[in-house]
Amino acid sequence: MHLIWAKIVTTFSARAYGTTIELITLLITARILGPDGRGTVASILAWTALFSAVFGLSLSQVIVYRFTNNVSDSQFNRTFSALIPLSFILCLAGWLCALVIYTQTESGGLKQLPAGIVILGFTLLPFIMWESYCSHLLSTTGRLNQYNTGLVIGKTLGFTTMLIVIFLAGLGIYGPIIGNLAALVITILIAVLTMRESLSKPLHVYASEMISLVSGGLKLHINTIGSFLLMTIDIVILSQYRSMEEVGWYQAATQLIAVPLMLPGVVTMVLYSKVADEGPVKVWATHRRLIQQIMGAMGVVAVVCYFIAPDLVSLLLGSEFTETIPVFRILLLAMIGMCFSQLMVAQWIGRGLFLQAGFITIAASLTNVILNFYFIPTYGMYAAAWTTVGAFIISIITNGIFAIMIEREWKCTYS
Questions:
Q1: Alpha-carbon distance 404 to 411, whole Å?
Q2: How far is CA 82 from CA 77, 210, 278, 289, in A?
Q3: Measured between alpha carbons, how far is 350 from 136 in angstroms, rounded to an integer?
């Protein structure tokens, strides 16, 4: 348990640094770009995230399952080699789909964004995919520290690039996108250099591995799409029906919520390697204790953030973002469900329960999407926040039932 917490602290430190950089970026761009400019940046990043979720085919999560009880250099080579052609094909498909949507839409959606922002935003697509692949490849093979190093360096240089683009080049809304791109490229390069010792030359692409990845991805993809619909689709819908200013207010609230959520995200990354080494049943005793500890901490954070929200938002974002305060307080209720959902992911994936996880997530997410389309045109970002709360109440119930089932299985096996 102490070794796990050591890994958690190390990884958390790297993520905390990256999140601090993102907060400083938000602070700077909120004052320079204003709610409208931040809304434009948030919209293109939401669209890019949508396409990376849809066309990424959940291959990152399947990597964890492929390495469960099979952590070896030969499996590493097979998986890494298969990802290269698959990511190329998927990225081309994503770009083609984006082009069709942009050219065939008369107004709203992507069409309301500047063409340069759209092109630059979708340049991120392959790099978002490979950053996720690299993080899962390294975490499942016990090399999370190397990924953390790349993340810190990438975030630092990406932030520096953003400042140069905004203040020296004077490109405004392009700055955060270019900075994001630089951070992703550098993180991926460092990760690949870390992996080179495990890669044989020349690389051989095995059709059987590609088929296994695609097969697992198709089963898990329902869950990935559902997770996106729960977490990000509200920004896309807001940008369709409401002003960029309101999108900026809402996105700022979601970004503030993402700060404490990095803790369960880090714990999950550490648990991937434990599940891969020991299997999901054996690791449950440790997993359960971590859930209890992290959920307790997140409850305290939610209460504190509720009371300091006015001062926190004013300090970080300025007076133009006071509308963010009530939305942030609503989303704190959803944060507990988001935390529990993240912490249970390793059990779903480690057991290969891709379809089951997918159907549960898609049920909650479709409810979220329908309610968003119905209420956002009238109630805007408040509707988006409350529907998110409702969706994660469903998530708490379903993951709670799953946890009870795992507990019974563990007792039958080890008691």
A1: 11
A2: 8, 5, 25, 36
A3: 13
What are the tens digits of pLDDT across the range 77-112? 888 888 989 999 999 999 999 998 888 877 666 778
Per the prediction, the chain carries an average pLDDT of 83
Secondary structure of 57-97 in the HEC alphabet?
CCHHHHHHHHHCCCCCHHHHHHHHHHHHHHHHHHHHHHHHH
Amino acid at 260: P
Model pLDDT for residues 38-69, shown as the tens digit of each residue:
888 888 888 898 888 888 888 887 887 777 65
> Which amino acid is residue 59, in one-letter code?
L
What type of residue sits at position 175? G
Residue of 344 and 274 predicted with greater confidence: 344
In a 10 Å sphere around its CB, with 0-12 CB exposed, 13-18 middle and 19+ buried, how is residue 208 labelled?
exposed
What kind and span of H or E run contains 252? helix 244-258
Torsion of CA 29, 35, 39, 41, to 10 degrees: -10
Name the pTM for this structure: 0.69
CB 150 within 8 A of CB 187: yes
Rounded Cα gap, residues 283 and 388, in angstroms = 31
Other residues' Cβ atoms within 10 Å of the Cβ of residue 308: 11
> Rounded CA gap, 273 and 279, in Å?
10
Distance CA 163, CA 67 (A): 40
pLDDT at 183 over 90: yes
- For residue 325, count CB atoms less than 10 angstroms from its CB and return exposed for 0-12, middle for 13-18, buried for 19 or more: middle
How far apart are alpha carbons 396 and 337 in whole angstroms?
5
Least confident of 226-230, 290-294, 373-377: 226-230
Q: Based on C-alpha coordinates, what's the Rg of the chain?
A: 21
**Burial zone of 312 (CB within 10 Å; 0-12 exposed, 13-18 middle, 19+ buried):** middle
What is the number of other CB atoms lying within 10 angstroms of the CB of residue 227?
24
**pLDDT at 182 (0 to 100):** 94
CA–chain centroid gap for 356, Å, is 21
Q: How far apart are CA 176 and CA 22, in angstroms?
A: 10
> From CA 370, how far away is CA 387, in angstroms rounded?
9
Q: Copy the structure tokens of residue 125.
A: 């697509």
